[in-house]
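debug: dumping io for the single-chain case to check the tokenizer round-trip. Nothing else runs in this session.
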Amino acid sequence: MIERRPLWPRIKPFLTVFDGALALIIFLIVSVGLVTLYSAGIDFPGRVEDQLRNILIAFVVMWIAATIPPQTLMRFAVPIYSFGIALLIAVAMFGLIKKGARRWINLGIVIQPSEIMKIAMPLMLAWFFQKREGMLRWTEFLMAAILLVIPVALIARQPDLGTALLVLAAGFYVIFLAGLSWKVIAGLFITVAASLPILWTFLHDYQRQRVMMLIDPTSDPLGKGFHIIQSTIAVGSGGLFGKGWLKGTQAHLEFIPERTTDFIFAVYSEEFGLVGNLVLLTLYLLLIGRGLVIAANAPTVFTRLLAGAITMIFFTYAFVNMGMVSGILPVVGVPLPFMSYGGTALVTLGLGAGILMSIQRHRTLVQS
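debug: decoded output
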């Protein structure tokens, strides 16, 4: 007679890899995202099933990343960064062109190398500052800036300004946390502000139009301003408690473009209202707060900078997406973390969460 062993003792070793608090918060956000996606994608058969597959892949990636010691991640920082730069150069030379942008390359499967840099950039800079611990001068910060500017320039050239800004933010967070002077930050801010008229001339026409639509979307209500106008109507019409699940008129009457991806927050706001938004904001604040706690308790310069940068990447994703949907930021292709439909971004975010869990897990193992 075959003896049946309880299922939980066999599953438990796999689950203990996860940081309980962080995994629970992500699970709740993912659950809210699936509920919203079901409503937003009711006219797109298969979206929920595809997203469940994406979530499964993201959680597998998260689990694998959580099992890898930070010391191993540190050893792979330079190769991953170098590989990412090589792919970006390859994209510039013979990448695939879709919708007027050269962002993809076919390596048997079609990939978007700029997504790699969202994690490779903070990995590389955290490694760089770890190797120079205790001897930071202005030359080190200059070298770090050069390491950051190279991929940002390659990505912006594709053109993909949204991803370029995310990679720039990821790298800047590491440099800032490494001890960049507030005087230097103020000087950079003043320099950028003074250079805006010059930078404006380097923007593509569609990028200028996005900025102009932020200022006055009613100047082209059926064209370039349509996204902002309809999303802000959806957010405002939700009121205090929302119209109810599956009852959002803006979404179901197809007034909201990209409602399963970049503008899923508009669907959520219309159906769940201000109260729902406060719940979602609380979840994101808990996610960011847990990440910052992990960063504060990290034992080395590398893990502290890496955890802090990844956490602030989560913040940047959420802030930029909600800001553009609410009409306070220009429309850029930034998904809402763990909610928007899509595979690449979800896997990247899952990888980042797994690295946070690895930093926390191995700190605990060392202390015990």
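debug: round-trip ok. The CA atoms of residues 79 and 101 lie 27 Å apart.
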